[in-house]
Task: structure prediction
Amino acid sequence: MTDATQTPLILVADDVPANVELLYDQLAMLGYRVSMAVDGPSALAACFDQPPDLCILDVSMPAGELGCDDRATGFEVCRRIKRDPRTARIPVIFVTALNDTTDRVKAIEAGGDDFLTKPHNRQVLSARVRSLLRLKVATDALEQSYRRLRELQKMRDDLMKMIVHDLKTPLTSVLASLEMTLDGDFGPLTGEMRRALGDAEGKAEDLLALIEDLLEVARIEDASLALDLQPIAPRAMLVALADEWAMRLRQEGARVSLDVSDDAPGIIGDAGLLRRVFGNLMQNALTHSGRGVAISLSAHRDTSGGVLCTVADNGPGIPPEYHEVIFHKFERLKHPDTPRVRSSGLGLTFCKMAVEAHGGRIWVQSSEGHGSQFHIALPCVPPHPRAATPLGGGTSPPGGAPAASEMGGGRGG
Result:
């Protein structure tokens, strides 16, 4: 790519020497550097040997080994320029004697940025060249900023992974010591000591769960998630989920209802990951809706032939502007009517990544004061399950039917 501080370089490709000379003189008078090509292959070679800031291509010129009609060589050159990431941002102007609408359509489909007919007006050419060069400078600057941002983000994520991984070992030792102390291995405890140590153990377990969430999200982002595929029946899955949360629901004064249609198909998926996905949604419904919330679990045949599962509640709801944001990493809903809870902001991120690993999708329908409905659409069989280090969480559901005991287990964050 030409340095922005240098005089812009423009490639002129035309098999008629008089046309090349005319454009060369006009562009040189405007202060640009000019390189030349007389056919399709030499135009492509020039683009990759010394990438110009802009290309001016004739449509009809010798195709050589490009394997296309000579009358469409310019279109083929443009397509190849736009297809390669090294040259994709180079603006292309077609200059041709043809003035048919079909040719203009072909120019646009090939990725051309502008179109001039012969004989061209020098002032129009100058204006369009200047405009496209300004656009390229702005696009290059944006791309460079985006690349720097990605590099900084990767450095931040790598540092986070290293710190989080290093925290896990000492925290596990702390938990082991607390457990031994509470078990009386170091002597009897007073009631006040037991309460204080129990509270410390609970907070340490919360921290360990956060660390596990961070590590699992990082592994999913690195495509190191393996699906432990097995048949799953939606009804058995949701019944087991309700049983698993029964005690917590009673403690919160909440109630749950089930609605599974007879035509809900079985699916093939990772039962452990799905358990965590639905556990996260149950946890969110309880913690963000206050006491006495009513939760509905349902499963029906999706229009695509898979299964559509829904976790709905009658809580305070989620404003529309947050419907996408809440699935982003570390994002949490901040609303005056929502109970203040401690959250990692990773639960819904995990749900989204796990569901998408099954080839499904998750979304929310909600409005303030009217509750929330989290929908999960899953195919009967994951199209391209990833193979890598197992996580022990869940993605998409499957086809057969695990026993209810297979669906017991942890909660989301």
In short: The chain has three domains: 9-120, 157-221, 229-407. The two ends are 46 Å apart (CA to CA).
